[in-house]
Design brief:
Layout (H helix, E strand, L loop, with lengths): L1 E2 L14 E5 L3 H13 L3 E5 L2 H10 L4 E5 L7 H10 L5 E6 L4 H9 L4 E4 L2 E2 H29 L8 H13 L6 E4 L6 H10 L8 E5 L5 H9 L16 H4 L4 E5 L6 H13 L1 E2 L8 E2 L3 E6 L3 H7 L4 H7 L2 E4 L10 H16 L5 E2 L1 H9 L5 H15 L3 E2 L1 H7 L3
Parallel strand pairs: 1-7, 2-3, 2-4, 4-5, 5-6, 8-13, 8-14, 9-10, 10-13, 15-16
Antiparallel strand pairs: 11-12
Helix pairs in contact: 2-3, 13-15, 14-16
Length: 399
């Protein structure tokens, strides 16, 4: 069945990855499994297309070898079903009846490569190496996009549909938006959505956590400074407003900003001009400002902690993000989303959540909101068995 041999290339770099072999011929799938396991791979086998699809949807495989000519469901149908299910494994088609047209059709349907029987070992190992490189690149790209563009706003509850509708109306404008809500509700996702759907989406999106910057440094961070402006100013520094020129600046936790910095922000909003710390030269900037807070700014105004004129400048549009307890119908969707996300990022096997366990998560009070829910899902994935049970929730969440 196999020809060649030679040096097994690149194997040491890719041991311990999981491979699935789908072939209706027992001798072929078992021989291929034995050879791959000898080289350190973890290998599962399926005797037909239906079984292979079921396994690929439940388990995370880096590479899938799939025969084309099989009864009931052939390899091309397997490809279609894997694509429909969103399986992102690299699929390598194998056949003893290959021709150019078949190979082209396989590639068009998303196969990584096409190998004819009898299988050459060096070709198999090189193809696995290349396929693994592709899967790693795709995974890194997905993670990078999440870091750059943020995660999705998951949910179909009435409050979330209302927020999406507001975003669609407001995003194309340059109106300033104040986003309110408790910690962990996803205010930053609203801000990113506003930027992504705006006419500024191709320009910079800059975030500033006002609560994380010491009061004595906030002005330098926002407006920049000139060399020598203060002891540690060893070179000129562009502030966040300049960095966001032409794009969007998101001021998170603006309720924690000092009154002095608030006055300068107000000036930028009014005049579209700023001056760096240590400079008397005005710079013109074109920035759309989005702000968020977990505080009641009207109460802060009464206490003298926040400028009323700045509040009115920022709150042309106000979007209030509901707590998780106010949108409990979204919890099953969020749990499913976080399971997919965490398993994809960590390589963990996907778990199912038993109905009574899911109901316990829905019934729980979520003081930490979505951030707390994600942490709980990750904890359950690490500590649970083949599925997440009610007992797991009792032991690891409600203890």
């Amino acid at each position: 069945m196999y020809k060649g041999g030679g040096t097994y290339l690149f194997i040491l770099f890719f041991r311990n990855m999981k491979i699935l072999v789908i072939d209706d011929e027992r001798s072929i799938r078992n021989s291929l499994k034995e050879i791959l396991m000898d080289e350190g791979y973890e290998v599962d086998v399926a005797e037909d297309g239906a079984q292979g699809c079921e396994m690929a949807e439940k388990e995370k495989y880096s590479v899938i070898f799939c025969d084309i000519k099989m009864p009931a469901m052939d390899g091309l149908e397997v490809l279609d079903k894997l694509n429909e299910a969103g399986v992102d494994s690299a699929v390598i088609m194998i056949s003893g009846h290959g021709d150019i047209d078949t190979a082209v059709e396989c590639i068009k349907k998303g196969a990584f490569d096409f190998i004819q029987k009898p299988l050459d070992l060096n070709r198999i190992f090189i193809t696995i190496k290349n396929a693994t490189d592709k899967v790693s690149l795709v995974k890194e790209t997905k993670i990078l996009k999440k870091k750059v563009y943020g995660q999705q706003m998951i949910g179909e509850s009435e409050p979330i549909r209302h927020i999406r509708a507001i975003i669609d109306k407001v995003a194309p404008t340059d109106a300033r938006v104040l986003i309110t809500g408790a910690n962990g509700t996803g205010k930053e996702l609203v801000a990113r959505s506003l930027h992504q759907k705006s006419n500024r989406s191709a320009m910079p999106y800059i975030e500033v956590n006002c609560a994380a910057i010491p009061a004595e440094l906030i002005e330098s961070e926002l407006f920049g400074h000139e060399k020598g402006a203060f002891t540690s100013a060893i070179k000129q520094h562009k502030g966040k407003f300049e960095q966001a020129d032409g794009g969007t600046l998101f001021l998170d936790e603006i309720g924690d900003m000092s009154l002095a910095a608030q006055a300068k922000v107000l000036r930028v909003l009014q005049e579209k001009k700023l001056s760096r710390v240590g400079s008397d030269k005005d710079l013109t900037v074109d920035v759309r400002v989005l702000a968020a807070t977990n505080k009641n700014l009207k109460a802060e105004i009464e206490k003298g902690n926040f400028r009323e004129d700045l509040y009115h400048r920022l709150s042309v549009i106000v979007i209030s993000v509901p707590s998780l307890d106010e949108r409990k119908s979204d919890i099953p969707l969020l749990v499913d989303y976080f399971i997919d996300q965490i398993c994809s990022e960590t390589g963990m096997s996907r778990r199912t959540v038993e109905p009574d366990a899911l109901q316990m998560l829905v019934d729980k009070s979520w003081s930490g909101n979505i951030r707390e829910l994600r942490n709980v899902v990750e904890r359950l994935l690490i500590l649970s068995g083949d599925s997440i049970t009610a007992q797991d929730v009792k032991d690891y969440v409600l203890y």
